[in-house]
Amino acid sequence: MTDENFPTEMSAIIKKEKQPGLELTNWPVPRNLGPQEVLVNVKRASICGTDLHIYKWDQWSAAHMEPPLVVGHEMGGEIVAVGSDVHHLKIGDHVSVETHITCGHCMQCLTGNGHICENVKILGVHVDGTYASYVKIPALNAIPMPKNMPWEVLSIMEPFGNAVHTVFAEDISGKSVLITGAGPIGLMAIAVAKAIGAGPIITTDISEYRLDFAKKMGADLVLNPKETDVINEILTYTDGEGVEAVLEMSGAEPAIHQGFEVVQPGGHVALLGLPQNNVSLNLTDWVIFKAIRIYGITGRRMFETWFRARKLLQTNRVNLKPLITHSFKLSEFEKGFDLLMKGKAVKVTLIPED
Q1: Is 100 tagged catalytic?
Q2: Which entry of 75, 111, 157, 161 is 20 to 30 Å from 313 by CA?
Q3: Structural domains in the chain?
Q4: Catalytic residue from among 2, 8, 25, 50
Q5: Which residue is catalytic, options 2, 25, 53, 126?
């Protein structure tokens, strides 16, 4: 890569200061690629729940970020430059991005568990992210994608990987499943569970808007805890048996409790949702006496999850397009954030204009 090939500045959305809000500004185009790095021209980015936390500047954001920084971590783009030691990727390749940048030398990395790297850095949180025209990332984090796959789909591959990782915590084909929380990842999990033969698939959420999407994605029964006794409804629907697997996507304590109440003895609970505070559990009755298995899910297994996710889309077993409800220019990002905060969108993508 030579500096004259690219502009010196680009439009980018940044967290400028330690306070609520984000700002669209001119930002330097990344330079000086390392030997194992690539430069990606961002074709489409996607807004994540983490970005909403950063926008609001909540306790989590304040503890993990040091502005100023380009935010965003979900994207699809085209490689426009490669480092001197990068040989498995080339200019023109279409890629999505694994947003967890691992150290490669801690015990977790060396034992094939890079998704729980002790020294992980996250795009858009610890290093400049994807709400820009260009982003510099380690070549290892650039995941090649078919050129016939739409940019907007590539931009949501990262959260799709979360859903795939959660669904595949255990084999759920032919098993009854409860998915608590019908946000974007919960909705993706419905589609994956259906694609691999799980059923019946029950979904809970307090938003009728999201429950309507849950039906479209393949849920057999949707329940609103504000309007019905979820535990009684699930036990009735399953002839008193409960469900064999619970995929918890909400982070809401009532939903977590409901999941543990209805999981069958010998079943499992996979936890992806992030509670804001500590959650109480009846370990005696819900876990020990039921002999259930609990999985904490973070990120995507690197890179097993990515191969599974890509195949599910390549073979048309899963269609993510219905979940992309809105797209805006990068300069109109406030519209997308506003819709998501009001619960009037599922996935919102942003299009760089440079």
Answers
A1: no
A2: 111
A3: 3-156+320-351 (3.90.180.10), 169-296 (3.40.50.720)
A4: 50
A5: 53
